[in-house]
Design brief:
Helix content is 42%, strand content 14%. By secondary structure, the chain is α/β, with parallel strands linked by helices. Helix 3 packs across helix 4 and helix 7 packs across helix 9. Bound molecules: S-adenosylmethionine. One of its GO terms (molecular function) is RNA methyltransferase activity. Belongs to the class I-like SAM-binding methyltransferase superfamily. RsmB/NOP family.
């Protein structure tokens, strides 16, 4: 499957003008290629250290926005197709190369097989990358493997079950019958969905998906759209906009948004007329939430604290819990999640989600509503959490009705939960994976 990546295919290395002091001639010749260097760092971070892609990007000294975007795209493509590309090179290796070399090789394969980079550039830049990283002994191997792939990629790919290979076994099993559709969905780059501020007109050129949600093609920069500075909209995937919609009429209600930053759902709650307390534990993220609301001209009480230990002065009408989760629903944007998360992370997150549900119980008035949501595809973080909450006897499920989900009927489960995955709405560009359920507080 080819991905559209003019940015990477057009970026060639920039040979250094001057010889660096103390560098060998070869190193000096090949010292500047910020895109591949950053992509290499990102992929190594994920595969060697289980470090999230965004963490490496945040730490990077590469400033140029186009270089960062091209590096992100190259790294994301490599991570998305890691499993099948690994299988592709396997028969061409006589010995197992160290992981660092494998990262460089697969960056090359991604360029050849998925990004339409001209073979001489893909091979040459990987060889240079190895030289720059004191891995020159592997340059012959890279040359041989990548040249062979560039000549024979079609026949070498024959019979490979790409989708199956690109997903770690534990996730493939956990996704069950949804696995193929999910994988096909996450191969696509996510479009840009905007939620419109009350009364704002949609910027031209978008496709209206639902009331107040407009879709622009993948790669659209939100800051370049007219109306951004004026606060006419914010970025929010269609699926992510659904939990608040599913809270129904909330005008005038006292609501806490327990895990609030960067604030997409807080903005929806305030726009719908609720009195909102937004709680966020991380200070920098709370600052971002504040800035986002200011741009949109919306007001909420923002508290920087641990929602697990917060108690309102008077019981609340509703709580929105967009709980910390494995984020497997966001694989289109974050393919690193595939390789960073482990089954034990999901287990620990599920325990945390139960703790948040119990904390929410103490905040609500009797009959108050908990809207539970996670951007996860895992049963343990979705239906299983709700089943556990119901078994406690503290809650009653208020199923989402057919009318409430008339615009997305395939997202309604037989239990009355909301559940999406990246393969849904495929003809319009897909959507994130989300789970949501509505619980009502019962008397003890
Ligand atoms: C899934 S994100 C929330 C996205 C947000 N609801 C939105 O729509 O923009 C989870 C957030 O919860 C925050 N968080 C995690 N644990 C928390 C806690 N114990 N108390 C408050 N916030 C927490 C994280 O810092 C993160 O910003």
């Amino acid at each position: 499957m080819k991905e559209n990546s003019s940015s990477v295919s057009n970026v060639s290395k920039r040979p250094s003008k001057k010889k660096g002091r103390g560098l060998s001639r070869t190193q000096a010749m090949h010292q500047v290629d910020p895109v591949r260097d950053l992509a290499f760092e990102i992929v190594r971070g994920v595969m060697e250290h289980r470090r999230m892609l965004e963490t490496t990007l945040d730490r990077s000294t590469v400033q140029d926005g186009r270089d960062r975007a091209a590096a992100h795209r190259l790294a994301a493509t490599t991570l998305r197709h890691w499993g099948s590309m690994n299988e592709l090179i396997q028969p061409l290796l006589r010995k197992e190369p160290p992981m660092v070399v494998r990262c460089a090789l697969l960056l090359g394969v991604a360029q050849l097989v998925h990004l339409e980079t001209p073979p001489h550039a893909a091979v040459g830049t990987v060889v240079d990358l190895l030289h720059r990283n004191k891995l020159s002994p592997f340059s012959g191997l890279a040359n041989a493997v990548l040249r062979r792939i560039s000549r024979e990629s079609e026949s070498l790919q024959e019979g490979l079950d790409q989708q199956r290979l690109d997903v770690p076994a534990w996730l493939w099993t956990a996704w069950g019958r949804r696995a193929r559709a999910i994988t096909k969905g996450f191969y696509q780059e996510a479009p840009l969905d905007l939620t419109l501020s009350p009364g704002a007109a949609a910027p031209e050129g978008g496709e209206i998906l639902l009331k107040n949600t407009v879709r622009f093609p993948a790669g659209t920069k939100i800051t370049t759209l007219p109306g951004f500075e004026e606060g006419d909209f914010w970025a929010q995937d269609l699926a992510a906009s659904m939990p608040v919609r599913l809270m129904g009429k909330i005008e005038g209600l006292k609501i806490a948004d327990l895990c609030a930053a960067p604030g997409g759902k807080t903005a929806q709650l305030v726009s719908a007329g609720a009195q909102v307390t937004a709680i966020e534990r991380e200070k920098p993220r709370a600052t971002r939430l504040q800035e986002n609301l200011e741009r949109l001209g919306l007001k909420a009480e923002i508290l920087v604290q641990d929602a697990l230990s917060w108690q309102p002065q008077t019981p609340l009408d509703a709580v929105l819990l967009d709980a910390p989760c494995s984020a497997t629903g966001t694989l289109r944007r974050h393919p690193d999640v595939l390789w960073v998360k482990r089954p034990r992370d999901v287990k620990a997150l599920a325990e945390g989600q139960d703790a948040f549900i119990n904390a929410a119980y103490k905040m609500l008035r009797e009959g108050g509503m908990l809207l539970y949501a996670v951007c996860s595809l895992q049963d343990e973080e979705g239906p299983e959490r709700i089943k556990a909450a119901l078994e406690s006897g503290l809650w009653q499920l208020e199923p989402f009705t057919e009318e409430e989900l008339a615009s997305l009927p395939e997202a309604r489960t037989s239990e009355g939960f909301f559940r999406t995955h990246p393969g849904m709405l495929a003809d319009k560009g897909g959507m994130d994976g989300f789970f949501a359920a509505r619980l009502i507080k019962q008397r003890l």
